[in-house]
Amino acid sequence: MPISTKLTRALGITHPLIQGGMHYVGYAPLVAAVGNAGAIGCITALTQPSPEALQKEIRACKALSKKPFGVNLTLLPMLQPPNYDAFAQVVEDEMASGQLRMIETAGHFKGLEPFVIRFKAAGAFVIHKCVTIRHAKSAEKVGVDMISMDGFDCAGHPGEADIGNWVLFAKAARELKIPFVASGGCADGKQLAAAIAMGAEGMNMGTRFMATVEAPIHDNIKQALVDGDEHSTTLLMRSMRNTERVYKNQAALKVLEIEKEHPGDFSKIGHIMKGDNYRRAFQETGDVEEGVWSAGTVMGLIDSVVTCQELCDNIVGEAEEVIKGRLANSVTLVSDDDEASKAPPKITPHFLLQYTYTDNVLEKRIPHRAGHLKLAGEFKSAGKLVMGGALGDLTGATVIFRRKEDADEFVSQDPYVKNGIVTDYVVKEWSVV
Fold first, then answer.
1. Beta strands in 248-347 (DSSP E)
2. Angstrom distance (rounded) from CA 96 to CA 101
3. Cα distance between the two ends of the chain
4. pLDDT in tens, 277-300
5. How far apart are CA 113 and CA 330, in angstroms?
6. Which distant-in-sequence residues (6+ apart) come within 8 Å of 403 by Cβ?
7. By the 8 A CB rule, do 172 and 129 touch?
8. Which of 73, 346, 357, 419 has the fewest other C-beta atoms within 10 Å?
9. Alpha-carbon torsion, ordered 351, 352, 357, 363, to 10 deg
10. pTM for the full model?
11. CA 124 to CA 11: how far, in whole Å?
12. Measured between alpha carbons, how far is residue 59 from residues 27, 105, 427 in Å?
């Protein structure tokens, strides 16, 4: 069952998930895949070398998907600023079909308000990214429709206030008059359920979408995100009050060393920080040590490269399980004279399916893995499957079902069983309080 929020209703999407703008990542193939998965993605305007190139990328996205999508336009002061007006005009022109519906803005170069006015006049739903409540209130005043509340966990520019999501989201729910989505460090369904509980209308993710099959970046970069953890980032340009959270590689460590010797002097690090190094690593060499590139602490929650469809379905499925299961079952109405409160705790039976895999499972499962994962997704969406996964050494897997009949039905349909990937299995009752 889909999770309906102000975000999904405003944009006509199925899942309350946004793929935010990312340099050298936010291209048409990824954005279209995100849209086809039921969420909404953003083409990154300033990754394109010109307004004409942006228009071409937008039209490529329209050719790949008929689902709603967005464009990210970051308005920041630069040594050689792009022609923001020309980029904005392309966005306005391409909104006529109704498929380009959302504009994600960030920064405030020459003032945010003129851009908000023109985008909204063209029919856009404008989401502005902020790292403090003060900035969010300012954006609220100029007329944006929603805030992307970006905590200190995020990749890219977390601001200078260093406020974590736990406080930021709770305060946004108290003080903002317009809705907001959670951003920074987001990757799974438990977080989506928590974000909704704290007042958010969904999640905005960047780094997690980089580790998808459709992300148009080198596989080495994706693997680095899987191999990394919450300790694999560092903060650059703090001395310039333009902090950026990036992947901790040799290039980033060199920048830290130079910045320590020459605080506040960008000219000393510009040759390492330049965007072409970033682009080359992502699009050509796959050298994870080359260039300075954004990544978030959410690496600690990324353990595989999956399709956008799998990612969105897994996140929403897990969130539904938390909301309908753990949260709903945590609330008990008890009066002082309620005899039931004195009864022993209720034991809820579940059923454990334990698989034993054949040797060389990594290679043998390849032709059947998509069907296996699809079946698991269908059972989870239907509320039959609670959770599960392969053992760390890939000798087998464990899956929890609500009923024995569900486990038996799953085994009878599983391509892994039908094609000899599973050599043995057992279903047994597993009771939890």
1. none
2. 9
3. 26
4. 999 999 999 999 999 999 999 999
5. 44
6. 351, 384
7. no
8. 346
9. 80
10. 0.77
11. 10
12. 11, 20, 51
